[in-house]
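SAMPLE LOG
Freezer: B-3
Tube label: C17
Construct: single chain, 316 aa
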Amino acid sequence: MRICSLLPSSTEIVFALGLEDHLVAVTHECDYPPEARKKPVVVNSILEGRGKLSSARIDEFISRSRAEGKSVYMIDSERLRKIKPDIIITQGLCDVCAVAENEVTDVCEVLENRPEIISLDPATVGEIIDSILLLGEITGTTERALTLVGSLRGRIEAVEKKLLSERYRPGVFCLEWLEPPYAAGHWVPEMVKIAGGEPLISMVGEPSFKTTWDEILESSPDYLILMPCGFDIEKTLDSIEEVTGGVRQWHALHAVKKGHCYIVDANSYFSRSSPRVVDGIEVLARIIHSDIFTQRPKDNSVLNVKNHFYLQTFLG
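STRUCTURE (predicted):
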C-alpha cells in the first residue's frame, strides 16, 4: 500500500494510525509530526519564495489568482507518476487551504496505475473523528483508529463534564484572517461551544467568511481569539500591527479592553481537521474558563496579546 497525502491533516492521521512507512508523498505544508518533512513533496504553493507578505497582501494575491482561474497550488505530476501511489487523500472543502479535488482527479488521469482517490471533507468535530475511522477502514487499521477515536472522545467528554454546572458562557469571536477579517467557520465554532463559550458571528459547520470590524465590534466579544489560517503564534505576531495599528475599532473592543485577546497556534490546533483539534478545544477551555481548567497550556500554544505587549514595552 502506497499512500499519497495531499492534506497536512490526513498526513497527521496517517502517522497516528501507524502507517508512516506506507506514506510515499506529501505536500510542502505537511510538517507534523516532524518526520513528515522527510517524505517526498509533490505539491507546492504559488506563494513559496515570495518572502514575508502581510495578511492583506496574501489575500489580495490569492483572490487575484483565483479570479484569473489560476490554482493556488502546483502538483508535480511527473514526480507523482514515478512514485505510483495506490491511494491519494485529498479534499473538496477549501481550495485555498489545499489542492482542490478536481485538480487531483485531472492529474490522476495521466497516471498509469489510476490510484484510488479518497476525499475528506469534514465540517465539524464529529466529522473529523469520522474521517479517522474512514481512513482506518480503508487502510486496514480499524482497531488502531477505534483506539485513537476513543481517546479523543474521552478527552472531549472530560472537558464537557467539567463544564456541566458552569452557567457562564462568554461570547467568543475567532478571527481566522487578520486583513480582511474573516470569521472562523467549520469546526471552530463547535470547538468554542465544547470549551464553554458562545461563538459569535460564525455558525457551526458553516464555512468561514469575510466580515467587518464594525460587525465584530457590534458583537461585543468577551474573548477575541486570533487564529489566522495556517499561522503559528510567531507568524501572527509578525502581522498583528495590521489590526492593532491600522484598525480604528480595535481598541474599542470589549475583549481588548479587558485583556481577553489571545493569539493561538492556528496551524497546529485549529486550521487543520486533524486529531489535534482536541488539543485546540483544551486550549480554548483554559482561555475561556481559566478558573476551572488550571493546567498550564502547551508551550507556544497560546499568548495573551496585552501581556505580550506590556512585556515588550517593559523590557524595551
